[in-house]
Amino acid sequence: MTNDTGFDPNRYVRQLTTRPGVYRMYNAAGEVLYVGKAKNLKKRVSSYFLRASGSPKTEAMLDQVANIEVTITHTEDDALLLESTLIKKHRPRYNVVLRDDKSYPYLLITGDNDYPRVVYHRGAQKRKGHYFGPFPSSGAVKNTADTLMRLFKLRNCRDSYFENRSRPCLQYQIKRCSAPCVGYISAEDYARDVSDAVEMLEGRNEKLIERLVHDMEAASAKLDFETAARLREKISSLRRLQAQSQTVGGKGDFDLICGAIDGGVAAVVVVTVRGGINLGHRSFFPRAPAGTAVEDAMAAFISQYYIDRPVPPELLVDPLPAENDELAESLTARAGRRVAIKTNVRGERRRWLDNTRATLDQTLSAQLASRAGVEKRLTALADALGMNEPPMQMACFDISHTRGEKTVASCVVFEAGAPNKSAYRRFNISGIEPGDDYAAMRQALTRRFKRVKAGEAKLPDLLLIDGGKGQLAVAREVLDELEVSGVQLLGVAKGSTRKPGLEQLFLPGQNAPLILPADSPGLHLIQQIRDEAHRFAIAAHRGQRGKARSASVLDGVEGLGPKRRKSLLQTFGGPREVARAGVSDLARVEGISTAMAQRIYDYFHDTA
User: Fold this and answer.
1) How many whole angstroms separate alpha carbon 342 and alpha carbon 331?
2) CB 429 within 8 A of CB 407
3) Beta carbons within 8 Å of 207's beta carbon, 6+ residues apart
4) Contact between 283 and 363 (Cβ < 8 Å)
5) Would you say 406 and 544 are in contact if contact means Cβ atoms under 8 Å apart?
6) What is the pTM of this model?
7) pLDDT the model gives residue 245
8) How many angstroms separate the CA atoms of 579 and 608, rounded?
9) CA of 546: how far to CAs of 214, 255, 406, 430, in Å?
10) Rounded to whole angstroms, how far apart are CA atoms 395 and 458?
11) Bridge partners of 554?
12) Residue 134, preceding bond cis, omega within 30 degrees?
């Protein structure tokens, strides 16, 4: 079987080796379409041609393949290294490509002078001294350098400036330098401050604090109260810093990495933690071909990101990258020690991972809302739907329930291509047959558009309905009954495989669905609005369902009033966790006596 270029994959695969290596797919013009690695080249390359992939991106790429070249490597880890190098070199159209290829900055405490200085450093580490990092941004380096200067009064001036001073500079006046340039501090005392700074940067704060406490007590015993006061201030600052470090999750080194793809835009946020100290975050927008799964994008990003950076012992990620175990093994081999990739973490680390995800959501939302992108998406959507003007006011409805329980409808509103969350509405649906989505949609639309007619809400230019022909027909009937006109209707149904990029779009009066290309900016906008309506509906439904179930479960405990019931739920996070708690755990909750704790425990276990 050959494609349009005349390439015969079956003949090519038959002669391929089973050894590890890297393969490169070329088009007829000799351009690199895709670079990949494989533990078994024959097995991996043949998998592309054995059956339909179901991915529009992959199928489009295979149609263009005119030649495949392979490079055999000694191990799969060598293949990973070569793959990343070739991706950076050729930037293939169908690979996820990390655009930011700059080396990360470090903080350097120089070692070629009797009075070392604090230096921002980027590039090869040739200068003598202590290097700390990598930091996620130049701002993170500056903040850390400021901390060192404030706590340990280390200089940051150039050597030529330092060697020609006859009196202290402003840094001394504002107590951010000990003025070694004019002999206000001895080389021995300055070296001790440098050693303290290194200890702090290496995460050994506790040992440092213990020694400083000892020095402070010794100074007090000698009646050197000025030195004791200075040490006390330093200890206090270090304890505050240590408390902040502990909220990150101990003294370890790890990176938090979250990624997402929305509206055709791929985004990744990396938070760097070293010695238990959060060094800040950085956002990336790798180029990802249409149809790329976020798990594949994460794997490609992590592989390229650490190609020329030190890998910490732990990566806390969301979501897990594709071929996670293989990627962890490769990073382990590269680092020379075990590297773990985790997503199921608890406590403070879970909260930090959640915060990284929230940062990612905000970053991605801002990227999608950029003016140039919005105009492009709105224009493309109007062209695809045959509208005379771009739809500046859009609304989307979705229904959510669990087997008919606590049905909720959501209405999200986008204005000028961006969410207007103040205009979002939720509708608690009642008086219908459980599970009747058509009746739920009718009720929500009727309630919403009655408000539109009363002037309480804006009339949308485009009304999207999450569903196919049936839901679209219901919407058309409601608008006709209420005599609402001037609204373009659009039904958004998932394709047969339910994969993003294969949505079927239904317009009134047209039997055949409209299917836009997976890389269409208009489709990306539709997906964003649909997904936001879905998220909003699910959140509302879960809230209603959880509220109902919480009340029904805890109401059965004799003598447990609303106030203590609320304390229990807030402490444990839900009725399921309350049911799992032991008597001693329950009794720790404010207002819950040991007798009441025993009663709650017996209630759950007697009825289990």
Assistant:
1) 13
2) yes
3) 199
4) yes
5) yes
6) 0.46
7) 43
8) 9
9) 54, 34, 10, 17
10) 10
11) none
12) yes
Amino acid letter, 115: Y
d(CA 37, CA 304): 13
Q: CA-to-CA distance for 470 and 491, rounded, in angstroms?
A: 9
What is the CA 33 to chain-centroid distance, rounded? 28
∠ Cα 545 551 556 (to 5°): 140
The radius of gyration computed from the CA coordinates of the chain, to the nearest angstrom, equals 31
Detail the DSSP E strand segments found in 376-456: 393-402, 405-415, 418-419, 425-428
| Phi, psi angle pair for 444, to nearest 5° | -65, -45
- Tally Cβ neighbours within 10 Å of residue 148: 23
Task: Using alpha carbons, list the distances in angstroms from residue 515 to 194, 383, 505.
Answer: 65, 13, 6
pLDDT recorded at residue 205:
62
Q: What values do phi and psi take at 497, rounded to 5? A: -90, -5
Buried b (16+ CB within 10 A) or exposed e, 59-85: ebbbebbbebebbebeebbbbbbbbbe
Phi and psi, residue 292, nearest 5°: -70, 130
Strand residues in 459-545 grouped as ranges (E)? 462-466, 488-493, 504-506
Cβ contact 418:369 at 8 Å: yes
The answer to whether 487 and 452 have CB atoms below 8 angstroms apart is no
Burial of 580 (0-12, 13-18, 19+ CB in 10 A): exposed
DSSP lists the bridge partners of residue 71 as: 22
- For the record, the structure tokens of 320 come out as 């897990």
The phi and psi torsions of 274 (rounded to 5 degrees) equal: -130, 130
Q: What is the pLDDT of residue 248?
A: 41
Which residues lie below 8 Å from residue 355, measured CB to CB, with a gap of 6+? none
Sole residue written with tokens 């930091």: 135
What confidence score (pLDDT) does residue 84 get? 76
Give dist(CA 263, CA 238) in Å, integer.
45
pLDDT tens digits, one per residue of 223-248: 878 778 877 877 776 666 555 444 44
The residues with which 267 forms a beta bridge, in sequence order, are 260
With beta carbons less than 8 A apart as the criterion, state whether 254 and 316 touch.
yes
- At position 166, the amino acid (one-letter code) is S
352: exposed, middle or buried (C-beta count within 10 Å: 0-12, 13-18, 19+)? buried
Which residues of the chain fall below pLDDT 70? 1-5, 51-54, 77-78, 98-104, 133-134, 136-137, 203-206, 237-251, 275-280, 366, 369-373, 402-405, 495-501, 540-553, 573, 606-608
For 267, the enclosing helix (H) or strand (E) is strand 265-274
**Residue 310, preceding bond cis, omega within 30 degrees?**
no
Q: What is the rounded CA–CA span in Å between residue 503 and residue 376?
A: 20
Task: Please report which residue ranges of 386-466 form alpha helices under DSSP H.
Answer: 437-453
Beta-bridged to residue 482, according to DSSP, are: none
**Under 8 Å between Cβ of 193 and 148:** no
> E-assigned strands of 448-550?
462-466, 488-493, 504-506
According to the 3-state scheme, what is the secondary structure of 460-480?
CCEEEEECCHHHHHHHHHHHH
Q: How close are the terminal C-alpha atoms of the chain, in Å?
A: 61
Residues in the chain, total: 608
253, 314 Cβ separation under 8 angstroms? yes
